[in-house]
Amino acid sequence: MTFIRLDAGQVPLYVEELADLMVDTVDGGASIGFLAPLDRAAALAWWKERAAGVAAGHLALWIARGDDRTLGTVSLVFPDKPNSRHRAELVKLMVHRDARGRGLGRGLLATAEQAAADAGITLLHLDTETDSPAERLYASAGWTRAGVIPDYAADPGGVLRGTTLYYKHLGAAGQGKRPGTTAPTR
Length: 186
Prior knowledge:
4 helices; globular; 186 residues; alpha+beta
């Protein structure tokens, strides 16, 4: 398995595979912000829009490649406020249904965490559907459960579900650099 951080020029090369991954993830019941059935064209448009965030440095995007295709992805979103240079949000951790059980989710999570720590990010946060399999991953990776917001978002079938908030401290206070940079960018 290879984990690749995409730059803005690489995002268009993988949008087709990322769209397929997103459709598979939603069809598999994962609550990642979309309702089923997810139209492939909508997934493709959503991923194409991410290139601007990558180019601007507001989004870091990784993919997991294996079997000559994209099997997983994870991203970090960086706030644009000066008082939040120390933190980032982990978003859209997805693993294709037929590639689960191989440690891809854990590998993607560790990749994003390490890149954030290397860049001086000291706090990560995320939310995930309450009682989803993802909760076991985050808990086993040392994330702290902060609480639950009931009826937060509809799952792919349209049923309102709670979301569980998690956070993870990555180390001592840093300079708030973004992954892939050598100096603070915010």
